[in-house]
């Protein structure tokens, strides 16, 4: 067998192995989604039909679980691989058909909230499939098409202006997702290829020590591939997640029924959990890109960290943990926002890995520094792992990758923040006896403390009646932002490019109060170009905000040089509203951050 053919077979085996590892959480997630669907369709579909549908769906999942366990016990070979991929594709497609079938009957003009929930749920499922199985193209297409197409067909049958265009967008959405998945698919396959290349290099190194430098170069390529994969996956998935957060915020303000409001809050809570994972990746990218710098000032430590006790006490109580925060009135010299984030990561990590006992925050002074210590009674850390835990994606005692324990970036972020702030970071821990993280920060000068307020003030109604121009080439994102801004009382105009915006502004003969622009637009245009051209065309220095889903370090550096305020997708609606206020309100009235 030729080496090329052998590599191809190994690559397919690796893809199938990756699929099996993903099925560990895809199957239970599908079951949860099916139960939710069966419950919320109570008004549209009879109980007998729902029970029959759910029973058939559970039967499919049982078969998939049995196949999964069999495939794990009996290793996949080149001979069994085609039949196993065909079986996996068949049951994946069958799952999509089941969801599409009930989705068709659940969409109704009489239940707009349930219909909107289904659309958001199913688009989220397509986005998840894009990230997890798009590298197996037939399986991906045979899952997402029967999942979404029945909804689009049903929407077209309503023959109303508001639903017909929405139904026509369904195939467009599937096409966009397919082409957006190309970068994820390419990065995944390239990462698999690089893994085999590295294995071959390591085997050669046992015989030839001289090629060590080549192996290091290949390893660097693998790291770059990982970075590109994270950046591509994050950008492609942050777009629909950003729209989802804005849609749910808009829906929450328009929903009066308490039951529906609870459902909306549950959807938003799930989106926030996914957002937290993306934000961790974003933090790492921003720190690596060098776009974060320390703005140190003198501040009272108790004032700086007072909000931490309020925010984490309830979290600790949910786990039946004792929580105390004993802070003195020492003055420190540091960047208040970055230092608070560092301590928050340590406290959150301590609570996450402590199942009984307590978490305590204390302060002390020694060696010209004020030390903030976070002590827990958790599982502890072996001395051999004291350095390792500050590396990316490292999680001790979490082989099952429990998402409740994060993704292993918290302490890596702490290490990077500590380097930027020039603080001393110490760890004292023994396996099974808890851990104490101590951070030493320089003492400050009390006479130079001017304003210790670092938390945002309540947002006023200043944004009402503002004329806001939104520039984004993603129609779904435009609709989401437009809907949210309109609920705040804003007048909104959307455009897909800078030239389109200029043309529309000339037609109406007006100038916007604010521009909100995506960074990456079509045909190589950037948000910076669009804003600059609009300002020139109108002859006004219009305030502007950049929205982006990018986390790649080089792209973040590009945006940093523009000097515009920046929000990352998905953004919190409150954060967007606060930034709009800051950009459009007279400077003497803007709340200090």
Walk me through this protein's architecture.
With 593 residues, the chain is an alpha/beta fold. Strands 2-4-5-7-6 form a five-stranded mixed β-sheet. A five-stranded parallel β-sheet has the order 9-8-10-11-12, sandwiched between helices. The termini are far apart. The chain is built from 16 helices and twelve strands. Mean pLDDT is 78; it is low at 398-408, 453-459 and 587-593. The protein is 61% helix and 11% strand. Helix 1 (3-40) runs antiparallel to helix 2, helix 4 runs antiparallel to helix 7 (212-254) and helix 8 (258-289) crosses helix 11 (410-421). The longest helix is centred in the first third of the chain and has 47 residues, at 161-207.
Task: Summarize the SSE layout with pairings.
Elements: H1 3-40, H2 47-73, H3 81-106, H4 112-132, H5 137-157, H6 161-207, H7 212-254, H8 258-289, E1 297-300, H9 301-318, E2 322-326, E3 331-334, H10 336-352, E4 358-366, E5 369-376, H11 410-421, E6 424-429, E7 435-442, E8 467-471, H12 475-487, E9 491-495, H13 498-508, E10 514-518, H14 527-538, E11 544-548, H15 553-562, E12 566-568, H16 573-584
Parallel strand pairs: 2-4, 8-9, 8-10, 10-11, 11-12
Antiparallel strand pairs: 1-3, 4-5, 5-7, 6-7
Secondary-structure-derived class: alpha/beta
The chain-level mean pLDDT equals 78
Q: So what's the oligomer here? A: single chain
Strand order of the largest sheet: 2-4-5-7-6
Order of helices and strands: HHHHHHHHEHEEHEEHEEEHEHEHEHEH
Number of helices: 16
Gyration radius (Cα, Å) is 26 Å
Q: What's the number of domains?
A: 3
Percent of sequence in beta strands: 5-15%
Distance between the termini: 65 Å
Total strands: the figure is 12
Largest sheet: 5 strands, mixed
- Report the uncertain regions: 398-408, 453-459, 587-593
General shape:
globular
The percentage helix is: 55-70%
